[in-house]
Hints:
mainly alpha; 1 helix
Amino acid sequence: MSFKKLPFTILNKEKREMDYIEAVYKRRVQAEIESYRDCSDEEKTI
């Protein structure tokens, strides 16, 4: 019985890892976009 559940557990673990990696990259990209916007906003006010 536990052998039948094993592949699903591995797949769920891989999916969780991929979801985590996607979330990390989304946050990095969002932070990069915000920092770019902040720099362009500062240039406009000068």
